[in-house]
Amino acid sequence: MAANGPLGVAVIGVGTMGADHVRRIDGVVGGARVAAVADVDGDRARAVAETVEGCAAYTEPAAAIASPEVDAVLIASPGPAHEEALSAAFERDLPVLCEKPLTPDPDSALRVLEAEQRLGRRRVQVGFMRRFDADYTRLRRTLAEGGLGRPLMLHCRHRNVSVHPYFTREMLITDCVAHEMDSTRWLLGQEITAVTVLRPAPGSGPSEALDDPQLVIFETDGGALVDVEIFAHCGFGYQVRTEAVCERGTARIGDDHGMVTRTAGRWGGEIAQGYLERFGDAYDREVRLWVDAARRGEVTGPSAWDGYAVAAVSRAGVVAQATGRRTPVEMIERPAFYGPGRR
Ligand SMILES: NC(=O)C1=CN([C@@H]2O[C@H](COP(=O)(O)OP(=O)(O)OC[C@H]3O[C@@H](n4cnc5c(N)ncnc54)[C@H](O)[C@@H]3O)[C@@H](O)[C@H]2O)C=CC1
Ligand SMILES: O=C1[C@@H](O)[C@H](O)[C@@H](O)[C@H](O)[C@H]1O
């Protein structure tokens, strides 16, 4: 990066999230420019690159990351491709914003942790954007202030209009419920110790192949219980809601917003149709803070350790989903490299 010049970012994977991050870096977040994009779909890479002045298109992530124009890497390819892109970024010691999941399983996540530690400083922020959302931040502050007493339970609802056709049943856990795993750890400051998955008879249509919806239950080391309804093809709207039940009261975020109309004996509001709409401000804040930190030579926000912890809980979740049994979470001790604390 030239002194005081913009941070040159390579965006790897320019589908739904990657293309939205390209737009964000190009037009919303100051201090950075999209220097390169890479996508295995060359037409898609070229089409997105053409929207940005001076942006090169690649089909090989490693080639984009090797470009001398690139100072930082934003990974938005599917989860199984993250480890390879992270390795290429580590070879050049570049700061990375890696979309969740860090990797879909704890073995590969552990390899990433070890590689980052060999570099001697944090290089990875994981895209758990709810930590940058105004409602989630307020809920966390409310719980921490203690006026409601100790949190006993979280009731979470996570509904998508639909998900990509390539989604598998496991991805309901590793790609969707991954967010509740992170927000549980972050809101409560507790680790998840066991996962149980219950399933009603599935809905029809695309829900049938996914065994959708599902009810995922976490137990934590602080004695809390968390239930998550994941409904990937609910069809009517994008709803992400969390209610904390505490000793002396409750706090709930994620009720539908928007204008409420009353007419002809009925009233009605609006339901967001997707995460780009519901979490747009959170993504903006997440990417802006990542760029600001990278320009200072730092990486902050959710760490590779948080990504590893979620991958470990995801493995228990996938086993619980397949067996119908309560499954304990197995994870390593938090390395001193990732600092004190548990979230
Ligand atoms: N933080 C959030 O709220 C969200 C995060 N995500 C995460 O973002 C990532 C991407 O998800 P979507 O954009 O929904 O997927 P998508 O399927 O819309 O886009 C993925 C893109 O990556 C490309 N690709 C596939 N393999 C690749 C490889 N090895 N190298 C480079 N490009 C490759 C595909 O051709 C496609 O263009 C995933 O990790 C997903 O979990 C997705 C949606 C929301
Ligand atoms: O990360 C995301 C998607 O990959 C996932 O499919 C959705 O369920 C989540 O709400 C969204 O935030």
UniProtKB/TrEMBL annotation:
InterPro entries found in the cross-reference section: Gfo-Idh-MocA_inositol_DH, Gfo/Idh/MocA-like_OxRdtase_N, GFO_IDH_MocA-like_dom, MI/DCI_dehydrogenase, NAD(P)-bd_dom_sf
Enzyme class: oxidoreductase
Signal peptide: none
Listed SUPFAM superfamilies: Glyceraldehyde-3-phosphate dehydrogenase-like, C-terminal domain, NAD(P)-binding Rossmann-fold domains
Keywords: NAD, Oxidoreductase
Domain Gfo/Idh/MocA-like oxidoreductase N-terminal span(s) in chain numbering: 8-128
Catalytic activity: myo-inositol + NAD(+) = scyllo-inosose + NADH + H(+)
Domain GFO/IDH/MocA-like oxidoreductase: 136-251
Summary of the function given for this chain in its UniProt record: Involved in the oxidation of myo-inositol (MI) to 2-keto-myo-inositol (2KMI or 2-inosose).
Record note on quaternary structure: Homotetramer.
Name of protein: Inositol 2-dehydrogenase
Gene coding for it: iolG
